[in-house]
Sequence to fold (460 residues):
Amino acid sequence: MLFIIRHLSPLVRSRRRFSFSLLISVLISIVFILYLIDYNRQSLDLLLDQELIQTTNKNSLLNVFIPKTTTTTVIEKNGLWAVDEKGRSLKKHFLALDLTGFFGAGNGEGATVQCISSNTTFIWTRQQNRIDEVDFVISHDAPVITGTPFNLLKLNQEKQQYSMAFIMESEVHSSTGDTWAKYNFKMSYNLDDSYPEPATYFDTNTHIIDLLKPPSIPFEEKDQNADIVWIISNCNAQNARQDFIRQLMKEIKIDSYGSCLNNRQGYAARMTDNIYAYKKYKFVIAIENSNCVDYVTEKLVKAVESGSVPIVAGRSGRPDYRRYMPDHSYINIFDYTSIKALADDLKRIATNKALYESYLWFKKHDKNITQLSTLSLDEKLKKFADVIGSNATMITNGIAGKEKSEDKVCKLIRFVRQTPWQEIAAHNGTARVNSDIACLPVGSIITYFNSLSSNSSQAA
Fold:
């Protein structure tokens, strides 16, 4: 300041060059500039105390300042995907490409689906030229991953696009092998061989209610002419169930409404009307067309919904019905040494109310079904465990704990919002085992009983 005054003093004495008022203005301006410089230096020090996150791309450098108390960092680049600091998706709206056109008219172009569990939505498209926008490529079965659109998918920090193959048919009737390992996600009815989780025929919310609610038709009002009903159209099943039923019909009355071994009219061969027929009978035959690990379909679902007792076929875990039902809630044909022994036991049970209702023991409880229906799945499971026991296989290693009961794509969205993309990318996919391993052999049901009969004859 002294330096400035020393050099300005001669100018003050020279009226011809500067007026006194002009000098005062210059001094005030200098003081103001010095103040601004000092203020900006303090502001810069304050900013340096904050955490600085820098995200870069080819054309820009974006600096984002956040307080130290922030726990979730959003990293989002223009035109690209949003993830948090761990690589988990933060998107709220997703696009799913239906590659094989399996989902039908109900999920046609532009159809929007709400995902309640993650508070998100996704839209269906079949336009492969939208591949740059797509989050998921969904394929029914597992076609070979070559060329478009799979070669255009990106899975990195900038963009996370995933492929998923799913199947609801058994290994006998669908593809198997290494191709399944090429997809990011694999979903099927198999409770343990799906990633990230299975896609089954069951809505666990509904299944729990159907198991706990009382039968709509009491024991005394069941059909008096036949105790068993069967409604099937496929009369060429891989496990030869039709040959088994043909022999069982010789031992006990069975009403068959389907086109296979038909002897009654009135109900269609598909599941639309089956529930109305099922509930009138004491037993419902719910045997699948092939015996494979965890292959349990709507046949059991509808049998349970009817309130009648299912007759099933499960051996060597193909399938294990304890994963889907409470103990002592079904008749397993493989528990019998002959078809006649099975028929005799069914007759005995059908004529004894107490014995029959012992297979429905879990329907006797103090739970309010109406109130139970309003609860979340987790809350339902707690109430259900109170009834059948927390150690029941269905609870500890079965459908109740593994099926989250929501749309397949919604399951994926929930998963990518909870799991870093790096972890998904590093996941080692597995092949889908073939039917020789997953399923019982061709003709397994009738072969089983024929072999028992042959052994019995030889022993005699």
In short: Residues 1-9, 11-18, 39-78 have pLDDT under 50 and may be disordered. The chain is about 35% helix and 15% strand. The longest helix spans residues 20-48.
